[in-house]
Amino acid sequence: MNISQVADRTGLPPKTIRYYEEIGLITPDRGANGYRSFSDQHLHKLAFIGRARALGFSIEECRTLLALYEDDTRASADVKAIARQHLEHINEKIEQLQSMADTLGHLIDCCAGDNRPDCPILNDLARH
Predict the structure, then answer these.
(1) Where residue 21 sits, what CATH number does that domain have?
(2) Rounded mean pLDDT of the chain?
(3) For the chain, which end, N or C, has fewer CB atoms within 10 Å of the first or last residue's CB respectively?
(4) Are residues 99 and 51 in the same domain?
Protein backbone atom coordinates (compact mmCIF):
# COMPACT_ATOMS: atom_id res chain seq x y z
CA MET A 1 0.00 0.00 0.00
CA ASN A 2 1.13 3.53 -0.59
CA ILE A 3 0.85 6.34 1.93
CA SER A 4 -2.46 7.62 0.51
CA GLN A 5 -4.07 4.21 0.85
CA VAL A 6 -2.80 3.83 4.40
CA ALA A 7 -4.01 7.32 5.25
CA ASP A 8 -7.48 6.47 3.92
CA ARG A 9 -7.63 3.20 5.84
CA THR A 10 -6.30 4.56 9.16
CA GLY A 11 -7.80 8.04 9.08
CA LEU A 12 -4.36 9.50 9.71
CA PRO A 13 -3.10 12.32 7.49
CA PRO A 14 -0.07 11.47 5.33
CA LYS A 15 1.89 14.19 7.14
CA THR A 16 1.27 12.40 10.46
CA ILE A 17 2.31 9.08 8.97
CA ARG A 18 5.54 10.63 7.69
CA TYR A 19 6.12 12.14 11.14
CA TYR A 20 5.65 8.76 12.81
CA GLU A 21 8.22 7.37 10.41
CA GLU A 22 10.60 10.26 11.13
CA ILE A 23 10.50 9.62 14.89
CA GLY A 24 10.85 5.87 14.45
CA LEU A 25 7.39 4.63 15.43
CA ILE A 26 7.07 2.83 12.11
CA THR A 27 9.53 1.90 9.39
CA PRO A 28 7.80 1.30 6.07
CA ASP A 29 9.56 -0.61 3.35
CA ARG A 30 11.04 1.35 0.45
CA GLY A 31 10.68 0.31 -3.16
CA ALA A 32 13.46 0.61 -5.73
CA ASN A 33 11.94 3.97 -6.66
CA GLY A 34 12.28 5.16 -3.04
CA TYR A 35 8.54 5.30 -2.39
CA ARG A 36 7.16 4.06 0.89
CA SER A 37 5.44 0.70 0.82
CA PHE A 38 3.20 -0.22 3.75
CA SER A 39 2.26 -3.75 4.70
CA ASP A 40 -0.78 -4.88 6.65
CA GLN A 41 1.48 -4.94 9.73
CA HIS A 42 2.34 -1.25 9.20
CA LEU A 43 -1.34 -0.51 8.75
CA HIS A 44 -2.13 -2.28 12.01
CA LYS A 45 0.60 -0.38 13.88
CA LEU A 46 -0.62 2.94 12.54
CA ALA A 47 -4.21 2.13 13.50
CA PHE A 48 -2.97 1.15 16.97
CA ILE A 49 -1.06 4.42 17.33
CA GLY A 50 -4.00 6.42 15.98
CA ARG A 51 -6.35 4.87 18.54
CA ALA A 52 -3.87 5.43 21.38
CA ARG A 53 -3.40 9.06 20.33
CA ALA A 54 -7.18 9.51 20.16
CA LEU A 55 -7.27 8.39 23.80
CA GLY A 56 -4.72 11.09 24.59
CA PHE A 57 -1.61 8.98 25.04
CA SER A 58 1.61 10.86 24.35
CA ILE A 59 4.00 9.82 21.60
CA GLU A 60 6.32 8.28 24.17
CA GLU A 61 3.45 6.43 25.82
CA CYS A 62 2.45 5.16 22.37
CA ARG A 63 6.00 4.00 21.80
CA THR A 64 5.94 2.11 25.11
CA LEU A 65 2.49 0.63 24.49
CA LEU A 66 3.50 -0.47 21.00
CA ALA A 67 6.63 -2.14 22.37
CA LEU A 68 4.54 -3.91 25.00
CA TYR A 69 2.00 -4.96 22.35
CA GLU A 70 4.78 -6.50 20.29
CA ASP A 71 6.35 -8.24 23.31
CA ASP A 72 4.83 -11.68 23.82
CA THR A 73 6.45 -11.87 27.27
CA ARG A 74 4.86 -8.63 28.48
CA ALA A 75 3.02 -8.40 31.76
CA SER A 76 -0.44 -6.92 31.47
CA ALA A 77 0.32 -5.15 34.77
CA ASP A 78 2.80 -2.96 32.87
CA VAL A 79 0.13 -1.95 30.37
CA LYS A 80 -2.39 -1.35 33.13
CA ALA A 81 0.05 0.87 35.02
CA ILE A 82 0.56 3.08 31.97
CA ALA A 83 -3.19 3.31 31.36
CA ARG A 84 -3.90 4.02 35.03
CA GLN A 85 -1.31 6.82 35.13
CA HIS A 86 -2.75 8.30 31.95
CA LEU A 87 -6.26 8.19 33.43
CA GLU A 88 -4.97 10.06 36.49
CA HIS A 89 -3.61 12.78 34.20
CA ILE A 90 -6.94 12.97 32.37
CA ASN A 91 -8.83 13.31 35.65
CA GLU A 92 -6.44 16.07 36.77
CA LYS A 93 -7.10 17.93 33.52
CA ILE A 94 -10.85 17.48 33.99
CA GLU A 95 -10.57 19.02 37.46
CA GLN A 96 -8.57 21.94 36.08
CA LEU A 97 -11.10 22.48 33.28
CA GLN A 98 -14.00 22.29 35.75
CA SER A 99 -12.30 24.91 37.93
CA MET A 100 -11.82 27.14 34.89
CA ALA A 101 -15.47 26.69 33.91
CA ASP A 102 -16.63 27.49 37.44
CA THR A 103 -14.50 30.65 37.58
CA LEU A 104 -15.58 31.85 34.16
CA GLY A 105 -19.23 31.07 34.92
CA HIS A 106 -18.98 33.12 38.12
CA LEU A 107 -17.41 36.04 36.26
CA ILE A 108 -20.11 35.91 33.59
CA ASP A 109 -22.80 35.93 36.29
CA CYS A 110 -21.13 38.95 37.92
CA CYS A 111 -21.00 40.94 34.69
CA ALA A 112 -24.06 43.09 34.01
CA GLY A 113 -23.48 42.83 30.28
CA ASP A 114 -24.92 46.27 29.70
CA ASN A 115 -23.63 49.53 28.21
CA ARG A 116 -21.57 50.49 31.27
CA PRO A 117 -17.79 50.16 31.00
CA ASP A 118 -17.39 48.36 34.36
CA CYS A 119 -16.75 44.67 33.69
CA PRO A 120 -15.76 42.10 36.34
CA ILE A 121 -14.47 39.77 33.65
CA LEU A 122 -11.90 42.32 32.40
CA ASN A 123 -11.09 43.35 35.98
CA ASP A 124 -10.32 39.75 36.89
CA LEU A 125 -8.18 39.22 33.78
CA ALA A 126 -6.24 42.41 34.53
CA ARG A 127 -5.43 41.61 38.15
CA HIS A 128 -1.95 40.38 39.00
Answers:
(1) 1.10.1660.10
(2) 95
(3) C
(4) no
